[in-house]
Amino acid sequence: MQKILAGMSVLVLLSGCATYDLALMPRGSGKMAHGVAKQIDKTVSITIDDRTYDGKFVYVRGGSFSLGTAFSGGQVVTGNAIGISATGNGNVLAQAADGHNLRCVFSFSGLSQSGTGTCLTDDQQLYDLQITR
After folding, report:
1. What value does the mean pLDDT take over residues 72-100?
2. Is 8 helix (H, G, I), strand (E, B) or coil?
C-alpha cells in the first residue's frame, strides 16, 4: 500500500512539472507558429514570425473565459462588422518586447493532457491553437 501511495505522489509531482507544446495555425495564409507552456510556473513563450511573446496562462477547471472583439467601418448609416469570439476554461496573456500583445483562450483536458483554442494578436491576426504534451 505504501508503494502505491509513493508512486501516486511521484506521479502527481511529475504532472506539476509538465511542459506543453503549443502549435498555432493562422486562419489566413502564413507560417505556423510554435511555443511552450510550463506547468510549474505557468509561463508561456510563443514565437510568431520573428516576434516572441512571453507571459502567463491560467487554467480554471470547470470555469470559462471569453475573448471577443468587434470592428466596424463606414458611415453612420452603413457599416461593416467582423466579430471574433472564443470561450474556454483557460487563457493566455503574453507580450512581446516591442509591446505587441497576444491573447489566447483555450479548453484543456487534464485526462488527455491536450487542448485546443484560439489566439488573437493586437494586429487582429487570428490563430487556431493546439496544446499537446
Report:
1. 70
2. helix
Count of domains for the chain: 1
Does some domain include residue 39? Answer: yes
Please state the pTM of the whole predicted model: 0.72
Query: 61: domain range?
Result: 18-132
Residue 12 in grid coordinates: 502527481
Contacts 24+ apart (CB under 8 A), 36-40: 37/92, 37/131, 39/15, 40/16
Distance between CA 25 and CA 96 in Å, rounded? 19
Distance CA 125, CA 30 (A): 10
CATH code of the domain containing 80: 2.40.128
